Amino acid sequence: MTQEPFDILFVEDDPEFSSGYVRWFEKHGHSVEHATTGQEAVSRCDQREFDIIVLDWNLPGLSGLELVQRMCDDNPDTEIIVLTGEGTIEKAVESMRRGVFDFLSKPFSMSGLERRCKAALERRRLKMENARLREVIDRVRTPNHQMIGDSKPMIALSRLIDRVAPTDKAVLIQGESGTGKELVAQAIHAGSPRANRPLVTINCAALPEQLVESELFGHEKGAFTGATAAKPGLFEIADQSTLFIDEIGELPLSLQPKLLRVLEDGSLRRVGSHKERRVKVRIVAATNRDLQQEVVAHRFREDLFYRINVMSLDLPPLRKRTGDIGLLVDHFLGNDWEIEADARAALLNYRWPGNIRQLINTIDRAQILADDGVITIEDLPVEMTERKKEIVSETTSAEDRSIYAVMRAHLLDVLKREQGNKTQAAQILGVDRRKLYRMLLQYDIGE
Ligand SMILES: Nc1ncnc2c1ncn2[C@@H]1O[C@H](COP(=O)(O)OP(=O)(O)OP(=O)(O)O)[C@@H](O)[C@H]1O
């Protein structure tokens, strides 16, 4: 069970009791506030969030049950312990039914109350952890932190990741789409003391502006049309962990001050709420825009830029580390596949504008098209082999003996002999009709 201090609100009208609680809990390192009426308790909880509320059943004003109901409804993330002078089973059962964590009859020992508070805190943690795990299960795409590449820039990058990961510093990852920014964020989180908690991710480009705010900061019930229940934001879900903000360059200007505030002092308010909440979150952000340029163009706040850019990692595009292409091809092909030399050459020579994501998709597609576990040049998209064709035509002499030219001439020859009959041509070539059609496309042979 945790020994961490907690934030607690005592709601008790008897001054003798309340000063006793406050002194005892403060002495044991907890942060304590005190209210003497139900109404005061409600307004305190409006201002800020507590881990635990210890509530006396007999207060002036609202009845015990009314107050319990109100506190449970308004503070779904806070655990509530009810105290009473004359404990009855009915009250206990009714309170528990409404969501109260525990019920304690006076008199009780302070250490007994502290034990119950710790158990309550543990339940709160578990609930938050559950919410986090659900979030992560929803968001998990590739649970793979393995970064392939032994080019100079990749070795330098790995070193930087090792340095920066164990710190709490904000990191900005910059690079073209598909270069592995999310993978780097996962590696930073995995190497940090927060690694036992899930990495929480948001992609600012994937959501409309109004949704980004409620996703990041949460919302209260009724905050806007469709907000049928209160929902914690990703900052709350990522408390004590890492929040990966992908495509931060797309974050609307109107939300940037709110992000700046939570980065500065860890405080935030859900949409539709006055209540201040506190979180401890490490930020890793990524962008494929030039953020400095965005600052100059007044689309990104300069103060926010400096906050998130404590440490910046630049991911080189694949065309600037061509030495890694072969390794990546072998890795994504797997052990059961082979690739013919001209197909490999086409991959090595391609410029990969979509970087590693495009390379993975290309290999997936080729594996679907290929026969017998061997990838041939016909299994690659035409733009890659067009390039190969360019290379061939750039490098061959008048008497063109390249594989490409020889194959094309042979295909034309067979088709001519069979008077364009594709079924017969395929038979002679020893391929099926599907493959013949792909070859015609590949070798630029029209109908
Ligand atoms: N060095 C690498 N080794 C192995 N796989 C990699 C590497 N870099 C990226 N990948 C893989 O490439 C794919 C794309 O990477 P990722 O999603 O991290 O890119 P990104 O830069 O975040 O893209 P975007 O900007 O479009 O969001 C993922 O499947 C990822 O696992």
TrEMBL record:
Keywords: ATP-binding, Nucleotide-binding, Phosphoprotein, Transcription, Transcription regulation
Record domain Response regulatory: where: 7-121
Top-rank taxon, per record: Bacteria
Record's keyword annotation contains Transcription regulation: yes
InterPro entries recorded: AAA+_ATPase (IPR003593), AAA_lid_NorR (IPR058031), CheY-like_superfamily (IPR011006), Homeodomain-like_sf (IPR009057), HTH_Fis (IPR002197), P-loop_NTPase (IPR027417), Sig_transdc_resp-reg_receiver (IPR001789), Sigma_54_int (IPR002078)
Entry keyword annotation includes Lyase: no
Positions where 4-aspartylphosphate occurs in the chain: D56
GO molecular function (one): sequence-specific DNA binding
BP GO terms, sorted: phosphorelay signal transduction system; regulation of DNA-templated transcription
SUPFAM superfamilies: CheY-like (SSF52172), Homeodomain-like (SSF46689), P-loop containing nucleoside triphosphate hydrolases (SSF52540)
Ranges of residues in domain Sigma-54 factor interaction: 147-368
The protein's name: Transcriptional regulatory protein ZraR
Organism: Rosistilla carotiformis
